User: Fold these one by one.
Assistant:
Number 1:
Amino acid sequence: MPFLFPTLVGMVVFTHGAVFAAFFISLTRWDALTPWEWIGINNYRDMFLEDKLFARSMVQTGYYTLASVPLGMVASLLAAALVNQKLKFMTFYRTVFFLPGITSIVAVAMVWLWLYNPDFGVINWLLEIVGISGPAWLGSTKWAMPAVIIFGIWRGLGYNMVIFLAGLQGIPDVYYEAAEVDGASRFRRFWHITLPLLSPTTFFVLIISLIGSFQVFEQTYVLTQGGPAYATMTIAYYIFLQAFQWFHMGIASALSFVLFLAVMVVTVIQFGLQRRWVHYG
């Protein structure tokens, strides 16, 4: 017990204590510079009834989540299947796929700023080769969020790929050998063996991807700053604006608790639905 005491104190003070303090601040009007003023649930009421940016940021966050999570999971699973082959230099290929996950997100976002440049960016240059006029990616209200989503999928590809790869390598070969003897095609083996036995791994990737997508911040901060015309305003970036640019600490704390509740509800729903498609053992 004495050895656990420092950890318990740190957890109570810096984790639980911070949560209770944030909830208290969400019931006040405070700019971090002057004394706070108690206003009760007014921050929450104004958020839902009057704050149009809150509604827009939630919609944009939902858009990002619904697009990036399934596409990112499919891309990661395909990448894992590719690097699960017994070929030469496979360790090198796995390393290349994983590099985006350990590289500084600010550094790679700066590279993507150049890739998305409408005048001399590589992406539009490649599109012009095939006769397509590329858009002003980050300057367009139509294409800014898809650009952020593409970057997010690329960023999370390597991390999720490693998890899927571990799941694939945990499936016994005997199942595939028996199916091959029975004449099952490669697709049927994938559909009836790989996917069911990989479902616990898929569920784990789904949960962490959902939680991460609701908290997306760095991409919008570096690439678009929530623009143009708030087209990429996510809830995490909106919390940042309220807290550290506009110094509305009470509103920012209230937004944080709403985000927490949204993530919790989605996660609980997924845990309820997982009984229908996740197979253990």
Number 2:
Amino acid sequence: MKMNVDELILGALREDISSEDVSTNAVMKTAVPGQAELICKEDGVLCGLEVFRRVFELFDDGTTIEVLSAGDGGARKNVFADPAEAGKKDRPFLDGDCIRKGEKIALVKGDIRTILSGERTALNYLQRMSGIATYTKKCVEKLEGDGITLLDTRKTSPNNRIFEKYAVRVGGGQNHRYNLSDGILLKDNHIGAAGGVKEAIAAAKAYAPFVRKIEIETESLAMVKEALEAGADIIMLDNMSVEDMKEAVKLIDHRAEVELSGNFTLENMEKAKGIGADFVSCGALTHSAPVLDYSLKNLKRLA
């Protein structure tokens, strides 16, 4: 994890401090040990604790983060529902925990200058990741009982994909391909470039290793039929009516996996139920989730 994210976090810190933190240096001339409390300001799903910690460690490796007790132990819901954790009492807070407004999550201890200068970057990561995890959990709950899997997309913030896709998993969703090197997805423009559905699939089969699945985006029942005949492994039903999606699933008849796509959000997620698809992808998980609000409060000197 550190190998993958350290340069990204350092870039975020450099973005916030190009030369010095003028405000902090004006009021703190020397190192003074201090402590601040990380407090949740609304109900949601906790996500990003280790990234929060790493921001301060990269700024000053003398900083420590003491994660506090979750208090009610086994009674606290965790999205991961790890049986090994469920019976533990007074364990520390974990990513995936359902947290409540006003709860103290952790103590940040170290040079007060580090706490002040690293605060915003650390909170930005925690708020964004927790917001995505919270929104994802709500979407997953809308799909309960149907057996369909919720997927994210590549509609992520530049240089934040690793954090945002992790947050989707913490919220109970699953990741679609990580990037363009990770899987074959033939969209409308690929189809246009190749000259048609069958031509695009044939080209992908000739180019890609046999171990890679080929997914293709379809917008009509005619395109679904072409994709089936050409041997697509996954057929995406993009922006179709519910009636057409149901008809497409019948037509496919388990000969390929089926993904629903096209402007699914928390507000309309339930329309994916009852269609018989395997997956539903939702760009809103990462591009429209509101942040979950936290504060770093009650800063005090320890010496």
Number 3:
Amino acid sequence: MKGIIGAICGDIIGSVYEFNSIKTKEFELFGDRSTFTDDTVMTLAIANWLSKDKTSEDVLIKELQLFGNRYIGAGYGRMFLNWLREEHPQPYGSWANGSAMRVSPCAWAANSLEEAQDLAYKSAVVTHNHPEAVKGALATVDAIYLARIGANKDEIKDHVETRYEYNLNRSLNEIRPFYSFDVSCAGSVPESIICFLEADDFEDTIRNCVSLGGDADTQAAIAGGIASAYWEVPEDIVDNSVNRLDDFLLDALMKFEDKFI
């Protein structure tokens, strides 16, 4: 299976390790505490926006607030929680990786790289309008879209490095010993992309992300979104993840898949 399911699987697998960091790829993929977090909720909010009216900022804001308030304990940052409660919410200059964690549906709803970039930009700036947050969303959506249309890893790497000036020439073995929890786009998106570039398959991508010992669920959602455009997500991983969604989230996923995937 391909599509936005990769971001959801990454989030659920990484959820246990977000505040319980490990520095190894040897861990149980799913356990009793594995659950969806804000990464999945916001990804499906974006998916619902795109399914309804991808031209409307009003619909985008409405869906983000609808999903966010329905799952108010999913793990949002303080500023985003305030945004969810506002009658006329405004962007608040965030540079965090929330813009990148939720962007994967934009790559699947687009008919060109340019449209994917436009949708990603719109999806980010209603909250995360800092240049680094926009850059993180755009770099992620470009990688997903290019993987979706058949680009190889070298082509994806060269494009992201050239366009966004991310340093993707570091290895995970170089990064891992000194890496720690980092919610900034600048400090987490390049590393997430490297997790994909070094991987052998979807599962290996997610194991790479968790093994960094950082913002595990979000980085696994970002890299998982790229990996699930490049490889098929194994059926057992899909099943274990989908079974942890409630009917409301599952309905949003199915509607998006029916329309775009």
